Amino acid sequence: MSTGSAELQREGRIAILPPAVADQIAAGEVVERPASAVKELVENSLDAGATTIEVALDDGGRSVIRVSDDGYGMSRGELLIALERHATSKIRTAADLVGVRSFGFRGEALPAIASVSQLEISSATADGDGTVVRVSGGSITDVASATRRTGTTVSVARLFYNVPARLKFLRSARSEWRSAADSLIATALCRRDIRFGVSHDGKNALSLPPASTMRIRLAGVWGAAFAERFMDVDDVTGPIHVSGLVERPADVGTASRRVFLSVNGRPVRDAGVVRAAESAYRSTVIPGVRPSLFLEIILPADVVDVNVHPAKAEVRFRDRWSVERAVEHAVRRALGEPSSAPFMGARSWSFTPAEPLSRAAVDVEVLGSRTAPADGLFSPGLAPGAPLEAPARGTDDAQGSLPVDVPPLVQLRRTYLMFERGEGVVLIDQHSAHERVLFEQFMNVLERGAAPSQRLLFPATLHLGAAEADAFESNRDMLQRLGFEVEPFGGNSIIVSAVPMPHPRFDALRCIRDTLDALTGDRLPSAAARHERLAATVACKAAIKAGDALSLAEMQALFIGLASTTLPAHDVHGRSTIVQITWDELERRFGRR
Ligand SMILES: Nc1ncnc2c1ncn2[C@@H]1O[C@H](COP(=O)(O)OP(=O)(O)OP(=O)(O)O)[C@@H](O)[C@H]1O
Ligand SMILES: [Mg+2]
Description:
34% of the residues lie in helices and 23% in strands. It is built from 18 helices and 25 strands.
């Protein structure tokens, strides 16, 4: 803390700035706006072991920010030294920085805030009298005794009153309030064990009792309906643990988007990690719409540096790639759970009813590898005319050991398959489901090999428009791999001599036409993007349609095929393949409860 009295040290053109100026400059890094002061003060309260924190702002924090806690407080001596730069109780040596658990460690926040505001701090420890200190623009103006309970209250009045350049850049009270609230919410999501009360201009804005889960905290902040949109993520990859909540694909884009990320208990921003989580939604949402995410990453302290950003809003990973892969994997896995589909009521089912939910993904993966395209039930290799057939149930061993338990299925309106499972009734959209099955098979084929195809007795000639002929040229290799044997035949014509046969109703020639039509004008950057586009397009054209009557064997095959995909609850256009209605919900509707 400067007293303003230090002699100016100078040599020629160069002079050392007076401490008051140096403090103000340093303050600029730490305290950019009211939200940053709020964040620093609340973090100090958390570091002091508080269990309840009350925050009051006036005028978006531009005129007053007050943070009170019930932490262990400071003695008079501690309070005075806390206002000095580089004064901290949290680390002693540089080595302590590795794996530092507290939010603070620089000893900068209080002096920084003090140098650009009119500050009052009152504090008391459990076994001492209270003290109140007043500071104006960095100079202590008053120290007195005070009677108060154990804990600390910091009031920051007139932030930046002595820094006109900064004052000018403050935004409206509304917008400053919004960013302070965002920062408070991020902290509250991190520290769910703490009771938070927040008010703005005397009106209660947030009142959060301790919450045992992220979902309960979300409900406390944005309401129960918001919290219901999310599914749980919980996954470990090597030393990296990723948990939290991510939005169900069916809900993405229907409410304002919110993103929260924490690393080892610190709220941080990280565009790369967010992108990794978003890319896990590939093929489950329309490209471009972005999900709300609330993710917590825990990893060994020595592989992340928390001391890289002036406001500690970012961290640096030693191995960013593996963190991003772990996040993508965790979210992808959550999207593979049937509970990621929309439901009416509160419970969800699993393809493997006897198992806890978390095992389901593993079992489904095992099955996925068994039903690789070459012998898949919906594989392009099925002979034309052969029925879609599920292996007879319960009779042979191979089927008996399949982890998918096929329930009795009913087709409704030649469009939906219905069955009863676990906690309720489940409906499958037969077209969407088949699309997902074919999409994953086609992706497999495009990335790993070629699909068997069926030679046509009479090769067919197709006459294309110029744009379709272009699309054919640029997708020819991939089409070939999917099992379409097609050659140019002069002009814009092509000749088709063999086709894949995913099911007996498949109209291969129509599929080629429609696919080429859909692909005209595509200029996709990567091979992966082109594969996805083609696989999705062909899957859509090749899948059975609403209105197709299915035999029982076909329904069973579709069920098993869907269960063996990695994302069974989602088609490839951002819609759901399944919808579930819980018994609870039905009972409620029938007035049984
Ligand atoms: N609410 C509080 N309750 C108890 N002690 C506090 C409180 N706020 C600050 N302190 C004490 O004052 C010291 C200085 O606080 P300050 O925020 O300036 O630095 P820091 O938290 O150690 O590091 P950083 O600058 O990274 O936040 C802290 O180390 C802590 O000992
Ligand atoms: Mg601090």
